[in-house]
Amino acid sequence: MAFTKLGLAQPLLKAIKEQGYESPTPIQQQAIPTIIEGKDVLAAAQTGTGKTAGFTLPLLERLSKSTPKMHKTQIRALVLTPTRELAAQVAQSIETYGRYTHSTSSVIFGGVGINPQLARLRKGVDIVIATPGRLLDIASQKGIDFSKLEVLILDEADRMLDMGFIHDIKKLMKLMPHNRQTLLFSATFSPEIKKLASGLLNNPTLIEVARENTTAEQVSQVVHYVDKHRKRELLSQLIKTKSWQQVLVFTRTKHGANKLTKQLIEAGISSAAIHGNKSQGARTKALESFKTNDIRVLVATDIAARGIDIDQLPHVVNYELPNVPEDYVHRIGRTGRAGQCGEAVSLVCIDEHKLLFDIEKFIKNEIKKVDIPAFTPDPSIKAEPIQNGRGGGRGRSGGNKPRNNSNTATTNTHQNSRNRNRNRNRNQGA
Q: 119-135, pLDDT tens digit by residue?
């Protein structure tokens, strides 16, 4: 199928062609015509499937069909995202595909001054892309008017729930008209997502392009067992001996990301860290340096990495396994995007065996184990509890407590994860 069959106008088709795309992805084939028709949508799609264009293209198409008279801070469409990076990515997509349309847009998130954002809204924009925390701050200052809102999009809604944004979302919903089109995109149709959708969507069309809780087939996955204190050494060896030039590495905590980055630099491997404690300027600079291959390794926490979209990223390394199995799917989804091949490597110590078991159970697949003789784990080392640290941890002041388990760590429930992260994620994501 070609994009010309989906009901998109010539200005959008021209922008698509300039990006080099000829055929829509499965999520785009299903979502674009449905959204253009004005129906509510509940969509489950893995990261890297083209879902962002799957809603930005029909959104731009819908808005181009009419030009209502708007007053001051009134907006026509709102896209809510969990993190700054994802908001910036969506904003870039709207700018790219909307270059030949008359729609205007603005991106809003925390970590930067609020006054320029308020000034931009006062000039009038059609589309706002925002994180919930900063948007609530602006709404409290009467800086935005939702009374004429036509389309609401919640992108990566599962992550917003995990990060504790549900209360912010509910507050924002009270400010919006009921007569609107609502689109909800999520990695999975979890019970929490279905509950959220039931209160937001009106007879939605369900779209699911991949089996729930699966990892991308084009991503090869491998586990190397290694002692915890030798992980950095093994990572450096893999990067050097295999000549990896662009590697996204995940840690559980912000402190761990900083420490590993410093160690890699000392080992002669150009690296940068990206996490919630970094300023927005530092995060943007690190990401741009990684995209342009000025640095070989980007060390990230789960929250900061949400929304990182890098064409043909070849390697993702789980330096530390995530505490929550879903995060493994999101992590390795940074590679193998849009049909490209990718490699996901996990460095697993004795403390993380239970986490690995939970991940394999979640993805319904056993990950290949490859032994590297020089790094065979010491069998005399016993498992120790793992500190909580979803999305980057909280450093010394965060109050993380070791897990109480006689053998190894166990995964948190979603509710505990959300409660633990709600306050800090408002700052990191907003």
A: 999 999 999 999 999 99
What's the per-residue H, E or C state across 155-215? CCHHHHHHCCCHHHHHHHHCCCCCCCEEEEEECCCCHHHHHHHHHHCCCCEEEECCCCCCC
The Cα angle at residue 215 between residues 212 and 221, in degrees rounded to 5: 155
Cα atoms in the Cβ-side hemisphere of radius 13 Å centred on 153: 29
Q: What is the CATH number of domain 219-411?
A: 3.40.50.300
CATH class of 3-208: alpha beta
Counting every residue written for the chain, the total comes to 430
Distances (CA, A) of 295 to 126, 191, 281, 286, 287: 37, 40, 17, 8, 9
Phi, psi of 315 (to 5 degrees): -135, 135
The domain locations on the chain are 3-208, 219-411
pTM above 0.70, yes or no: no
Measured between alpha carbons, how far is 16 from 298 in angstroms, rounded to an integer?
30
